[in-house]
Amino acid sequence: MPCHKVRLLTLLLTVALGLSAVACSGQDESDNKVSLAGAVSLMGKPIEGASISLWQTSAGNGAKQLHDVRSGGDGRFELDVPKQDGTVHYLIAQGGRVNEKPAEKLVMLSVLDPEIKESVVVNELTTVASVWPNAQLLDGHQLNGSTAALMIGSTHVRHMVDPETGHYGATLLDGFNLPSSETMARLNVLSNLLALCGSSTSKGCDQLLSLTETDNSLAAMTAIARAPWRNAGELYNLFTDSYPVDEAAQVRTSASQPYLLFAPESFSLSIRLFGGGALALGKMMFDDKANLWSGANWMPGSQSGVITGIGGGMTRFAPSGKPLSPALTGYNGQGLNGVGWGTGISEKYAWVSTFNNKIGVFDLSDGGSLGPATVDLPIGELQGIGTARNGDVWIADNTADHMIHFPGGDYTKGRRLTIKGLESPFGVAIDLQNRVWVSSSYDNKLTVFPAEAPDEVATVTIAVGARGLAIDSTGHVWVAQQSNAPVPVLPPGATLPPGAQFPPPKPKTIMQEFEAGAAFALANPQITTGGQVGVISPELKVVRNGIASDDVYVPWGVSIDGNDNVWVTSMLGQKLLHICGMNTAVCPKGKQTGDVINVYQSGVIQMTTDVIIDDAGNLWSANNWYDDRAVINATDSGRTSTFAGGQGFVVTYGVAGPVKNPLIGPVRKPE
Which tens digit of pLDDT belongs to each residue from 282-332? Predict the structure, then answer.
């Protein structure tokens, strides 16, 4: 059937069924462009005479406008989108008339991905879904970023909204997301706030722009996405005032449903992703193609826990979050049986260090097995991996108290080193002076030594039981500590689990350590905070400790974003903490170094070990544990016996300063 007849038939169906998009595909014969039929609407009403501009952006070239068309009386428009590798296209709809009223402050967005084939919609939902994953890349109508950043930002839109239909995305609607978080309800409230700008005389639109200090609806959404905690209560009140409850129906009949019934702490949006063997992920890392890699504690579907378990392998995900590694096992083929904090990326390889005394090595291009790595002497159970700017790889031998060094990242030439005083090494980071910083999960020392002279050891006294550590662009080191003192101190009112000792003896295995921690938490449900974050200067001086002690409960992972702000996981608190870093100029007014800026929570965020920042400024956090009762699996726990491992990982959109991945040495800002 000719394309114009298809469009006519689709238009009739659209009018009859009240749909918001008119679809017709016709790929150009030259195969260099895709012809799209589009529609622009607001809350289901077509926008007449809107300016629809097509933009193209790519790394190094920036964003440029390609076409500008006007929507018809039914909101329809047509345009051709060129096909060009390495580019991202997006549509901006501006102005027009809604219900015969001019909407001069209305600006909406739809970011396209390679899956766009036939139709495209620009509406309030596509705007919110397009803004949040790209919030740190947007500057007015300009969308700019690295190749990795643009790839991530454009492919995550579809998780929340399908840009071809303007309706909710399949990921948001799935069982891992829809019933588990506020994301759907927040998305609807945000889209309804945007819709207030459907009339230039709307007082609601003026209030929205005043609260966000912006001059149009797209800028307002961008401002909210970047700081979703700012004026959250006032924005919610604007929603409730603008969309009153119909007393007869007992709901807000003019609002999109479901909407929030209670004021949110923030308007952050989070999506949970799963598959590829991702159960109880530990440390997470990105490679230079924006693929996510992470080792898994346990195998999905197994009755694994800290006492009895079947270990997982290496998982890998595309920039979109699509699993690339096999279900259940992840990548393996090297006899790996469970991975903790040991995931690292070097120039050529992905590395995992395991609970069963092995070091797995994988090809970055296809996940092919290359290891296990060879080490000159026997090794124990392993944890953190650090990669240096010169290519060296360092791995913490947690149970045998050694460091393992692979000069130049050659996995066939591992050397086991004995470092004076080192005990239970856990996290590893290498600074620009090529000094190796190592935390201890058991004692109160942060160990530092030059890579070229491992015998020249220095230590910094901190609190007992440190985990992750990260180096900012100024050389300061931020470290998560799971206690509040340099000596073991039982919290007031705490109860020891049956058979437990205090101070606890040094565990012989990694899982024994985890078992003790889980048992203590279960025995003390009244305790909801514990631990702290510290910052150490390049001169090995404690700048400040006790950071976030009122907010965090068992801090674990630490990451630095492109603004040198600090992000920390609160494992048992099931939170992500945003902390002001050394550069207070980029922190909210009144915040000083070490102050907590905001705490992010969501139903999809479980007990979390790690949080990292992608090239577009989104947070990716690892769900490590799900049900702490199932974690201690001495006996069969029945229907919950498979509940120990945290389910997949979570992406929280748009709140961090973009970085350049992979993380090799200290944080790197985008070039």
Answer: 999 999 999 999 999 999 999 999 999 999 999 999 999 999 999 999 999
Nearest alpha-carbon partner for 536 in 626, 641, 463, 642: 463
Closest CA to 351 of 405, 427, 421, 295: 295
DSSP 507: P
Amino acid at 651: V
Q: Establish whether the linkage from the previous residue to 498 is cis, with ω within 30° of 0.
A: no
Residue 264 burial class via C-beta count within 10 angstroms: exposed 0-12, middle 13-18, buried 19 and up: middle
Q: Give 300-327 as a 3 state SS string.
A: CCCCCCCCCCCECCEEEECCCCCECCCC
Distance (Å) of CA 653 to CA 109, 138, 268, 548, 658: 16, 13, 7, 22, 11
The angle, 0 to 180 degrees and rounded to 10, between the axes of the packed helices 217-226 and 124-134 is: 40
Instruction: For residues 509 and 224, give the distance between their C-alpha atoms in angstroms, rounded to a whole number.
Output: 46
All domains of the chain in start order, with CATH: 27-226+230-264 (2.60.40.2190), 270-652 (2.130.10.10)
In the predicted structure, residue 15 carries a pLDDT above the cut 90: no
Sign of the torsion formed by the C-alpha atoms of 664, 667, 670 and 671: negative
* Residues 544-574 pLDDT 10s: 999 999 999 999 999 999 999 999 999 999 9
Region label for 180, one of left (φ > 0), alpha (ψ between -120 and 50) or beta (otherwise): alpha
Buried/exposed 598-635: b ≥16 CB within 10 Å, e otherwise: bbbbbebbbbbbbbbbbbbbbbbbbbbbbbbebbbbee
- Following CA atoms 532, 538, 541, 546 in sequence, which dihedral angle do they give, to the nearest 10 degrees? -10
Contact 482, 466 (CB under 8 A): yes
**Closest alpha carbon to 423 in 406, 441, 404:** 441
Which DSSP category does 148 fall into? H
Could you read off the pLDDT of 360-395 as tens digits, one per residue? 999 999 999 999 999 999 999 999 999 999 999 999
pLDDT tens track for 211-220: 999 999 999 9
CA gap 46, 26 in Å, rounded: 24
